[in-house]
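Ticket 4471: requesting a sanity check on a complex prediction with uracil. Repro inputs:
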Amino acid sequence: MHFVDIIEKKKRGEVLTDEEIRYWISGYVKGSIPDYQVSSLLMAIVLNGMNEEETFSLTKAMMESGDIVDLSRIPGVKVDKHSTGGVGDKTTLSLMPMVASCGVKVAKMSGRGLGHTGGTLDKLESIPGFSVSLSEDRFVRQVNDIGIAIIGQTANLVPADKKIYALRDVTGTIDSIPLIASSIMSKKLASGTDVIVLDVKYGDGAFMPTLEKAEELSKEMIKIGRSYGKRVAACVSGMDQPLGNAVGNALEVKEAIDTLKGMGPKDFTDLCLTTGAVILQQAGVADLQQAYKMMAESISSGRALATLKQLIRAQGGDERIVDDQSLLPQASHITKFRSGSAGYIQALPAKAIGVLAMNLGAGRETLDDIIDPSVGIVFNKKVGDKVEVGDVLAYIHHNNPLTSEWVQRFQQAVKFTDQPLPETPVIEKVLI
Ligand code: URA
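Returned structure tokens:
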């Protein structure tokens, strides 16, 4: 087989066989097919697509490129959730203790942030002492002992995706439904849980531009997961503005803790309650309505907060941060950003805000960048809020002086209107 023939075939819009896809993935992981040829094929896939069978073959070939985690030593239903990525997305930190406190087993592998999107591991590592690398044995033991563990993906979990994702990131080939679906589902299937709930984002800060595209991606991923006998559902939500108020690692940990104390922002709390209800429903714990009540109760009873403390302690972190948030990394300066306009906030574009937070040091532009866990932005006003001139729009937590260029970009990002805006629910569709 010649790889160039496979590229030519996809360039003509033809369908690749399972054998050709397996040849591609194994050759690329082994190093016998170079980056430039794979880039070319990826672009042909972005432009000409893949049918369902090709997407299934690609998912399988990627999943089988490395280890498949065996969670059979953990009795009970194991659940996982995956967000397609966003700004201010600290969902795992609140949601997973909530569902674990209701009796399902959370054996979760998370990722790091890149570009304008944040990653759960970076957020967890802003907790002093918290370790995201546990051996498989310790991971399994911890889930059996306390019902929850959150770690980084092991080095050999879907190595094909590690290589392909890095290449897609620099070749303009991220935004393709078959490539995103196979990338996400190969990792979720290799992680070995029984239930997978997908938190699929669309809008300015997301890979999917519209609700329709996000639904199409969700349906594709649900079909792939179900073909492996997994229970899969999706919640589709907008990412036109950051989720919650905080963007930045330690600031998001603080907001996640506040949420478990019943003092979280409404949009973020709603997302956790609904997604959690879907997880419990898929796990067979309760019907949706009952599961929603259980989620609310996990907060009001303090059970979810106690589970978060257990998780932090088990993974070597300083659990005192739950009660004393001054023990989290703190930036040396907090600057109030005041509004120069009056009206209603029309837009806080998530992508621009994510890049602004990254420029403060909260994210990484390249994989080697080092994150400053203390910095970020905490919004005091969100889309739809009424603002007077001089009101504080946001608190900027920073360690370096804010440049006039940064301030200008922030000012330009916030858009105003003189008309009140209709309220939209954070989750727009649940696909069960
Ligand atoms: N997240 C992933 O893991 N893969 C993609 O392709 C996009 C988002």
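Notes from triage: The chain has a mean pLDDT of 95. Leaving this open until the requester confirms.
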